[in-house]
Amino acid sequence: MIARIWRGTTAADRAQEYLRYIQATGVAEYAETPGHRGTQILLRTREGKTRFTVISFWDSMEAVKAFAGDDPEVAHYYPEDDEFLVEKEPTVEHHEVAEISGPAALT
């Protein structure tokens, strides 16, 4: 299994609005892509900014490419992201998942 990790930052007062936006765009598109296994969204607010860390889980790099395209290291952005994000990372990270356990484990 592959974990794809994307990060971006919004103004803290727009974090909930952006959360709803990414749930309706990226997370919805993940769910429609064969090989997607689940998503976690982490938020950290400090000094008026909220940092988003989105971790999506995939069966394989081929499944990731079905979502992200031939260069899966490039971050995939949507049209309104520029209206929300004060910091955008141009790339994402991919990691092999060694273990997922506990009540929140993916099935």
Secondary-structure topology with pairs:
Layout: E1 2-11, H1 15-32, E2 36-46, E3 49-58, H2 61-68, H3 81-84, E4 85-88, E5 93-96
Antiparallel strand pairs: 1-3, 1-4, 1-5, 2-3
Summarize it.
The chain is an alpha+beta fold and 107 residues long. It is built from three helices and five strands.
Task: Describe this protein's structure.
The protein is built from 3 helices and 5 strands, in the order βαββααββ. It has 107 residues and is an alpha+beta fold.
The multimeric state of the shown protein is: single chain
Number of strands: 5
SSE-based structural type: alpha+beta
Shape: globular
Largest sheet: 5 strands, antiparallel
- Ranges with pLDDT <50 over ≥5 residues? none
- Helix run count: 3
* Secondary-structure element pattern, one letter each: EHEEHHEE
Average pLDDT level: 94
Fraction in beta strands: 35-45%
Distance between the termini: 12 Å
In angstroms, what is the radius of gyration?
Answer: 14 Å
Helix content bin: 25-40%
